[in-house]
Amino acid sequence: MSTTAATLGTFSVRPLDPIADAELLHGWVTDPKAAFWMMQDAKLEDVEREYMRIAAHEHHDAFIGLHDGEPAFLMERYDPRHVELVGLYEPEPGDVGMHFLVAPTDTPVHGFTRAVITAVMRELFADPATRRVVVEPDVGNKAVHALNAAVGFVPEREIQKPEKTALLSFCTREQFEAAVRDVEVPR
Q1: CB-based contacts of 89, cutoff 8 Å, min separation 6
Q2: DSSP class of residue 18?
Q3: Do the beta carbons of residue 154 and residue 135 sit within 8 Å?
Q4: pLDDT of 132
Q5: Least buried of 62, 69, 112, 152, by fewest C-beta within 10 Å?
Q6: Dihedral sign for Cα atoms in the order 30, 74, 148, 115
Q7: Full-model pTM
Q8: Is residue 8 exposed (0-12), middle (13-18) or buried (19+ Cβ within 10 Å)?
């Protein structure tokens, strides 16, 4: 599936290849702007190993996001009943967990990251079984909280994960559609 954002081009995703994409990802996850990804000191082999683990997991998937056909972001989808949030909240049928990371750039484009998260949400809701998207960003990541709110996420509460204090937030299909109704180009 692909999404077109006004003046920003076309966004799509492809499955991540843990070996072929490791060098690209290494540059993204170790960039200072990716501090909340918690892989700042990762070596190339660490990135390969992490994404091979995800590729082998039946409840966790990773994708390279493309902007006009070029790698521009990372998207992860997971089942919160089995990954990340086990025991931290009561999952509902149709819940899907999500992480995303925009590639670092020296020439930021206004609205690009919002277009990326919108494309990620469109991709997740393209599956009719997805009823609600769940996220758990670090409580200190104010930029992503604002992006999440812009696409319809509603914070529920703080939760303690082993690696961070997170803001558990949810977005239903209806909340997402209402939030982006006036922002996107009609398809």
Answers
A1: 80, 134, 156, 159, 168
A2: T
A3: no
A4: 98
A5: 69
A6: positive
A7: 0.91
A8: buried
Read off the tokens for 111: 């609205």
Pairwise CA distance, residues 63 & 177, whole Å: 23
CA–CA dist 34, 59 (Å, integer):
24
| Stretch (H or E) spanning 55 | helix 44-56
pLDDT in tens, 88-117: 999 999 999 999 999 999 888 999 999 999
Degrees, nearest 5: CA angle 177-178-179: 90
Q: What is the pLDDT of residue 4?
A: 53
CA nearest neighbour of 146 among 114, 183, 187, 174: 114
C-alpha separations of 100 from 33, 76, 186, 187 in Å: 13, 6, 24, 23
Q: Which two tokens stand for residue 167?
A: 């803001």
| Alpha helix segments (H runs only) across 57-183 | 112-125, 142-150, 173-180
